[in-house]
Amino acid sequence: MIARTIGALAVAAAVAATPAGCRDSKTPSAPKPTPAAADHGTTRIDAAAVQAQLARLRVAAEDTGNPYRRAEWPHWETVSGACDAREHVLTIQGTGVSTGPGCKITGGRWVSPYDGITVTDAKTLDVDHVVPLAEAARSGTRTWSRADRQRYANDPHVLVAVTAKSNRSKGDSDPAKWLPAKDKCGYLSRWVKTKHDYRMTVDQTERDAIAAVLRRC
């Protein structure tokens, strides 16, 4: 109980502070707030700026020797009042959201940015990490501490409420293997920003796939 409380406080502090970038290459910190991930329709992006940010990412082969283990990335910690990270994202990314005791979501409306589907039952939604935890584990984060992994896993700026079907379709794929049916440019902008702010690496195939789509944005 004490460890969980300390972890929750650490996550809450990181979310509140949201400093830009990282303190160093080994210890990431939460990025500055960005527009809500669940934009309705197509997100307007500065493609040239995203391309420049992509160019600054370090290209490296996936670190397959650092396998993802769910228990090593504690998530759905309490981040705001009684709300855990999942509930908090559902609250801020929906419209007309109502909650009951313990921040249980009792109503609302959400538009899944991956497929444009409108949802009114929160139980049918997944809260996805833009860069999946398994992908993050393979992207130059081997030296992250448990607190670093917890901070990323619960950061509302890298979480998005989407339909379960679209999220299961994505799995832990990078943009070379999967892109959403809707708003590909907005999705790639958030992907690149997440990797940039958390000092993650990209593999060459991933980088080339992102660059090819951005040229059409």
Can you describe what's shown?
By secondary structure, this protein is of the alpha+beta class. 36% of the residues lie in helices and 13% in strands. The strands form three sheets. Strands 3-4-5 form a three-stranded antiparallel sheet, with helices on one face. Strands 1-2 form a two-stranded antiparallel ribbon. It is globular, with a radius of gyration of 17 Å.
Low-confidence stretches: 1-40
**What form results from the Cα inertia axes?**
globular
Average pLDDT taken over every residue: 85
Reading the helices and strands in chain order gives: HHEEHEEEEHHEHHH
Structural class, from helix and strand content?
A: alpha+beta
Indicate the proportion of strand residues: 5-15%
**Ends distance:** 48 Å
Computed over alpha carbons, the radius of gyration is 17 Å
Number of strands: 7
What profile does the largest beta sheet have?
Answer: 3 strands, antiparallel
**Number of helical segments with 4 or more residues:** 8
Helix content: 25-40%
Sequence of strands across the biggest β-sheet: 3-4-5
